[in-house]
Amino acid sequence: MKTLRRWAECRRRGRPHHGEILREAAALADAGALKPIVDPRRFTLRTVTDAHEAVENGTAAGKVVIDIVD
Q1: Per-residue pLDDT at 14
Q2: Is residue 42 within 8 Å of residue 50, measured between CB atoms?
Q3: How many CA atoms lie less than 13 Å away from 69 in the CB half-sphere?
Q4: Which residues neighbour 67 within 8 Å (Cβ) at sequence distance 6 or greater?
C-alpha cells in the first residue's frame, strides 16, 4: 500500500519529484537497505524461451537474468 501511495504522490507532484525519489533510493542502496530479488536460475539466449515462460507463468522468483555472452 505504501508503494501505491508513493506512486500517487509522485504523479501529483510531477516529474521534478522523480529526482527526489531516485536520490532517496540511491541513499537506501548505499546504506545496504535495498536487496534485489533475482531468480537463482540463469538463462542464456538459447534458453530465453524458458525465461519468458517463467515470467509469464509466475514461477520466476524475482527478476530474471539472461546471459547474452556464453
Answers
A1: 74
A2: no
A3: 0
A4: 42, 43, 44, 45
